[in-house]
Each structure stands twice: as C-alpha cells, then as structure tokens.
C-alpha cells in the first residue's frame, strides 16, 4: 500500500490507466480487431501491471525494511533487492 499522498496518487493514476487499457482491449475483442493488435494491447497491459506491482512493492519494502535498516550497508542491500525485483518485473 502506498505510504504517502504522492505515492497514493501515482498508484491511482496507474490503476486508472490500466482501466482504460482494459476497456480498449474489451472493445478490440468485441470489434474483432486483428489478433496482432490485440496481442500488442495485452503486452502493454502486462507491462502496466508489472509497473504497478513494482511501484507498490518498492514502497512497501522501503517503508518496512529501509526504516529498520541500521547500517548504510543494509540500506544498500534493500536498494539492490528493489533493483533486482524491478528488473525481473520488466
């Protein structure tokens, strides 16, 4: 869950964008649009969901783990973990 008003606004913006993408996909399917265009929309939706997941997960990790990290090395380890997760979700 986002921990600040700025993070909450960013997450809600992503969710609203996803809603629009899903509605466009639904319309494309109803209109029997070419398969390659539908697949492209699905790939875009997957990317948007992964971005949403990465953002919320990063917020959660920073709030929970970095706040309790005692040393600079531990904080850097949290940053490294977040970077790896973001790379995986791309």
Automatic annotation (TrEMBL):
Pfam families: Trns_repr_metal
Any single GO BP term: negative regulation of DNA-templated transcription
Single GO molecular function: metal ion binding
Family matches, as InterPro entries: Metal_Tscrpt_repr, Metal_Tscrpt_repr_sf
Signal peptide: none
Xref: PANTHER family: TRANSCRIPTIONAL REPRESSOR FRMR, TRANSCRIPTIONAL REPRESSOR FRMR-RELATED
Family stated for the protein in its record: Belongs to the FrmR/RcnR family.
Protein name: Formaldehyde-responsive transcriptional repressor FrmR
Species: Providencia stuartii
């Amino acid at each position: 869950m986002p921990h600040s008003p700025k993070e909450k606004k960013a997450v809600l913006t992503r969710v609203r964008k996803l809603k629009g993408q899903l509605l466009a996909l639904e319309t494309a399917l109803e209109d029997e649009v070419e398969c390659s265009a539908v697949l492209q929309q699905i790939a875009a939706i997957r990317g948007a969901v992964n971005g949403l997941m990465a953002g919320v997960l990063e917020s959660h990790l920073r709030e929970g783990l970095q706040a309790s990290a005692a040393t600079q090395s531990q904080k850097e380890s949290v940053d490294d973990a977040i970077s790896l997760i973001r790379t995986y979700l791309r």
